Amino acid sequence: MRILISNDDGIEAEGINQLRLFLQEDHELFVVAPDRERSASGHKITMDRPLRVKERTYPGSRTQGWAVDGTPADCVKLGLEALVPGPPDLVIAGINFGPNLGTDVLYSGTVSAALEGLINGVPAIAISLASYEYYDFSEAGKLIRELVTKLGKEITQNSLLNINIPPCRPRGIKVTKLGNRRYINIFDKRIDPRGKVYFWMGGEPFDKDEEDPDTDVWAVREGYASITPLHFDLTAHVNIGNLKTMIKKLEG
Ligand code: MN
User: 27 alpha carbon to ligand 1 midpoint, in Å?
Assistant: First the structure.
């Protein structure tokens, strides 16, 4: 398959490098990724300035790469429209260093890179290592290689697959829905050298209260690899009928 690879940790990140190495033997790869870390940049695109692109080669492989001074969504958009010769079969974003679980997918540059593929009609996968302390990408690499090489792009069923790998050998694979991931101690209030107050956003994830075993948060916490199919259609379909009735009443 022809695969466009991107991420939000930057083109030099270990995760994207591992992803490339795990896939390069069986697939034709094109890397289009930010020239620096752009984590938590969501789906931002750059319209107020030009995008600069730097070509990148990978000695000993036929993979072509480009570093872009834009966001993850910029990279995939630019890759599909201008850089990759011909449409790819699949977009894969990752392997992200850190989890992308629950509502965090809305802030995630990794998930946004994959979504940009889906928006443009290309099936996509986002894959993340759900830890900030564990540096072994091999279980994530092996799983993505299995999924892509054995099942092909049909595995995505024209949605986006959001995959999270626990920081251990997974006990198995669970197909999940987005769970609840709360944060505590989000803002640190500090005083700058001139006596002015400022806030630094951080926060510790608190996922102990997610008890639904069908969720991504539960699966990863219990040591499973989690696969959640996502779509950019945020419509609350269950509410459409009720809302129609209410608006009809209003119109009398
Ligand atoms: Mn990241």
Answer: 24
CATH (one of 3.40.30.10, 2.60.40.10, 1.10.1200.30, 3.40.1210.10) for 2-178+209-251: 3.40.1210.10
Residue 225's pLDDT band, with cuts at 50, 70 and 90, is very high
What pLDDT, on a 0 to 100 scale, did the predictor assign at position 68?
Answer: 98
Share the mean pLDDT of the chain: 95
Give me 37's structure tokens: 């870390």
- Ligand 1: distance of its center to the CA of 248 in Å? 46
210 CA to centre of ligand 1 in angstroms: 23
CA of 234 to the centre of ligand 1 (A): 23
What's the 194 CA to ligand 1 centre distance in angstroms?
Answer: 33
Confidence of residue 182 (pLDDT cuts 50, 70, 90): confident
Average pLDDT (171-196) is 94
Predicted confidence (pLDDT) at residue 5 exceeds the cutoff of 80: yes
Cα of 195 from ligand 1 centre, angstroms:
33
What is the widest separation between alpha-carbon atoms in the chain?
71
pTM for the full predicted model: 0.95
- Predicted confidence at residue 154, as pLDDT, reads 86
What residues have their beta carbon closer than 5 A to ion ligand 1? Answer: 8-9, 39, 96
What whole-number distance in Å separates Cα of residue 128 and Cα of residue 25? Answer: 21
Produce one character per residue of 217-242: b if its CB has 16 or more CB atoms within 10 Å, e if not.
Answer: bbbbbeebbbbbebeeeeeeeeeeee
* Rounded mean pLDDT, 172-184: 93
Contact 90, 4 (CB under 8 A): yes
